[in-house]
Amino acid sequence: MAFKPSYFKADLFEVLSSPVRIQILDVLRLGGASSNYIAQWIEVEVASVTKHLFILHDHKLVKPRREGTCIIYLVSDPAIFKMLDATLEVFNDRRAEVKDTPRATVRRGNSQIPLATTRRFIETDETCRCVHVPTAGSG
């Protein structure tokens, strides 16, 4: 089968379907970090971070660099952040659309009860942004 961009995109989106992998990339946004450092920032076990880093490395999204006895991970191509930022923009646009629509409800007897997932989504007034964290060694 010939290389087709749609297959590449589907594979990339599958790799990025894990929120932990996206959090890892956000930590690496400003520079390299060790698996221990990443685990501390995203509050996930080091073993889990290592597993996700392996998957990201296997798909050429991160690359390891040895510094003494430590392995520092870096993003292979910073263009990935354009895509992540674009998805965040789509999310914020959709969120604004949902705020402008009536709240979804479920009828229970004579009462209209708001759907819990919709309520949690609508009640926050803050716009979601990428989280920037300091890089290892930058303080």
Write structural notes for this entry.
- The chain has helices spanning 5-15, 19-27, 35-42, 46-58, 80-99, 116-123; strands spanning 62-67, 70-75, 105-108, 111-114.
- It is of the alpha+beta class.
- The chain folds into two domains: 5-80, Winged helix-like DNA-binding domain superfamily/Winged helix DNA-binding domain (Arc Repressor Mutant, subunit A), CATH 1.10.10.10; 88-123, no CATH class.
- A two-stranded antiparallel ribbon has the order 1-2. It has a two-stranded antiparallel sheet with strand order 3-4.
- A hairpin with a 2-residue loop joins strand 1 and strand 2.
- The protein is globular and about 60 Å long.
TL;DR?
The protein has 139 residues and is α+β, with helices and mostly antiparallel strands.
Sequence-ordered SSE layout with sheet pairings:
Layout (H helix, E strand, L loop, with lengths): L4 H11 L3 H9 L7 H8 L3 H13 L3 E6 L2 E6 L4 H20 L5 E4 L2 E4 L1 H8 L16
Classify the secondary structure makeup into a structural class.
alpha+beta
Question: What is the strand arrangement across the widest sheet?
Answer: 1-2
Average pLDDT score: 76
Task: Indicate the CATH class of the largest domain.
Answer: Mainly Alpha
Helix content: 40-55%
CATH topology group of the largest domain? Arc Repressor Mutant, subunit A
List the uncertain runs.
Answer: 115-139
Distance between the termini: 49 Å
Number of domains as seen in the coordinates: 2
CATH superfamily of the largest domain: Winged helix-like DNA-binding domain superfamily/Winged helix DNA-binding domain
- Report the portion of residues in β strands: 5-15%
Query: Which descriptor suits the 3D outline?
Result: globular
CATH architecture of the largest domain: Orthogonal Bundle
Number of helices: 6
Total strands: the figure is 4
Order of helices and strands: HHHHEEHEEH
Largest sheet: 2 strands, antiparallel
